[in-house]
Known about the structure:
Strand content: 5-15%
Structural class: mainly alpha
Radius of gyration: 12 Å
Distance between the termini: 13 Å
Helix content: 55-70%
Order of helices and strands: EHHHHHEH
Strand order of the largest sheet: 1-2
Amino acid sequence: MVKSNLPLLMAKHRIRTVAELSERTGISRATLTAIYYGKGKGVQYQTLETLCKLFKVGVGDILEFVDMEKTA
């Protein structure tokens, strides 16, 4: 499964709401909410690039793969 670290990054950068992140990035609240809760079906490269630039991180810092078979 792919896990979103967006809540952690937002907290680290003192961004309190998805609405605030949306204002800073120009990414829609709906898109950010889907990423935040890990419910999206896909993420566009441009969205990831924008988030990487804002947080000064790599894609792997925003999304990470967690092998559920190995954690069980």
